[in-house]
């Protein structure tokens, strides 16, 4: 039987300053992998150390190196960073940032970045696998949100086919960027037949505790740091009206720790086959999550005094779109079950309250 020898692997991870990448870095280190993390800015090196004693210790011991490459489209710099690397975990990608320059700031960087990394990796003979953070948004057209097919069961072979339509919002542009990046990865492997294979991780709405925000003498997070992106939207139903999410969310949560774990599990080719794609989403086998109803029920169950006292006024809105997805292949191949919404959301709410208490000096 094939054996995965961690001591022979060297991982290059991008996106480590972000929510998913940070957790992926922590899990890879705890498994014993030697890691080179790629960041864009010198300040990220200090920041990583300030946010986690484990990262600080790994930097000191040499298990972790951090390489600074200001431009992730610089193929020569990426090629240099890939020297000696066996598996690339490419997580970095622009999210739906507030901009009107959809092509320049969201779509093009996502596609060009993944292409640059794949081209550079193809020149490095040690690279055997590339794990890419894709998204479930790549399965369906953005327009699906306005007219969802909530009966059909979607699976990892589904792919958005309306990629030529000009985006009308940052979220629409993000949708397009992820689908085109996913296609670029698949096409690159097909056209160039490099020495490595790929695993695309198609994640749902990633939520749960943000490990970058664990308070310590060197890390003093605020609730504003937590109320960003998906975390802000899913906490909205507990908060005031002003916290309301600007658009509905599909009902496919997934714990950030499961997403991170899947990236690290996918490093092992004896466990996860190559040239494969996996949907990551919890609660797929029950009736899905209804964000407002379920988040508020959870608050009443686990945080009744905060509901009673008005810490949670329960006035913000987050509409839900039902989306049926098949995660059975993911759970079969990876050999674990997704953490359920209740546990994921409870951890996030606890973290919000912990940080709020510190902020208020309570
Ligand atoms: N959050 C979700 O619900 C969700 C769901 C499905 C898939 N995903 C995917 O998961 C990945 C990570 O998302 P996240 O939630 O962790 O986002 P995040 O916290 O905003 O982190 C994004 C990371 O990507 C890097 N990045 C962004 N644009 C870049 C560029 N042009 N060049 C180089 N680096 C760039 C950022 O680096 P800097 O710090 O230098 O900006 C940061 O490290 C993305 O691929 C995203 O599409 C997220």
From TrEMBL:
<keyword id="KW-0560">Oxidoreductase</keyword>
<feature type="domain" description="3-beta hydroxysteroid dehydrogenase/isomerase">
    <location>
        <begin position="13"/>
        <end position="181"/>
    </location>
</feature>
<dbReference type="InterPro" id="IPR050425">
    <property type="entry name" value="NAD(P)_dehydrat-like"/>
</dbReference>
<dbReference type="InterPro" id="IPR002225">
    <property type="entry name" value="3Beta_OHSteriod_DH/Estase"/>
</dbReference>
<protein>
    <submittedName>
        <fullName>NAD(P)-binding protein</fullName>
    </submittedName>
</protein>
<dbReference type="InterPro" id="IPR036291">
    <property type="entry name" value="NAD(P)-bd_dom_sf"/>
</dbReference>
<comment type="similarity">
    <text>Belongs to the NAD(P)-dependent epimerase/dehydratase family. Dihydroflavonol-4-reductase subfamily.</text>
</comment>
<dbReference type="Pfam" id="PF01073">
    <property type="entry name" value="3Beta_HSD"/>
</dbReference>
């Amino acid at each position: 039987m094939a054996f995965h020898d961690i001591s022979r692997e060297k991982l290059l991870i991008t996106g480590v300053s972000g929510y998913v990448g940070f957790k992926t870095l922590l899990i890879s280190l705890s498994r014993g992998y030697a890691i080179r993390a790629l960041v864009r800015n010198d300040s990220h090196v200090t920041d990583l150390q300030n946010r986690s004693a484990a990262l600080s210790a790994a930097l000191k011991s040499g298990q972790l190196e951090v390489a600074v490459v200001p431009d992730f489209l610089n193929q020569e710099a990426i090629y240099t960073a890939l020297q000696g690397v066996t598996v690339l975990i490419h997580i970095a990608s622009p999210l739906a940032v507030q901009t009107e320059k959809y092509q320049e700031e969201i779509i093009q960087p996502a596609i060009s970045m993944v292409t640059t990394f794949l081209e550079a990796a193809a020149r490095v003979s040690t690279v055997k696998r590339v794990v890419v953070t894709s998204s479930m948004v790549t399965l369906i057209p953005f327009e699906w949100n306005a007219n969802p097919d909530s009966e059909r069961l979607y699976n990892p072979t589904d792919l958005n086919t309306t990629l030529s339509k000009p985006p009308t919002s940052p979220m629409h542009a993000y949708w397009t960027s992820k689908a085109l990046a996913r296609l670029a990865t698949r096409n690159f492997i097909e056209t160039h037949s490099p020495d490595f294979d790929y695993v695309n991780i198609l994640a749902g709405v990633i939520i749960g505790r943000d490990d970058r925000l664990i308070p310590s003498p060197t890390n003093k997070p605020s609730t504003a740091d937590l109320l960003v992106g998906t975390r802000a939207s899913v906490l909205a139903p507990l908060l005031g009206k002003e916290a309301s999410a600007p658009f509905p969310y599909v009902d496919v949560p997934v714990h950030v720790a499961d997403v991170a774990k899947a990236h690290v599990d996918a490093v092992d080719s004896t466990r996860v086959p190559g040239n494969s794609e996996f949907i990551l989403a919890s609660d797929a086998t029950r009736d899905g999550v209804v964000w407002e109803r379920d988040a508020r029920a959870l608050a009443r169950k686990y945080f009744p005094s905060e509901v009673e006292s008005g810490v949670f006024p329960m006035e913000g809105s987050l509409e839900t779109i039902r989306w049926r997805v098949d995660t059975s292949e993911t759970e079969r191949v990876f050999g674990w079950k997704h953490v359920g919404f209740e546990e994921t959301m409870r951890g996030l709410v606890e973290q919000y309250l912990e940080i709020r208490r510190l902020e208020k000096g309570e």
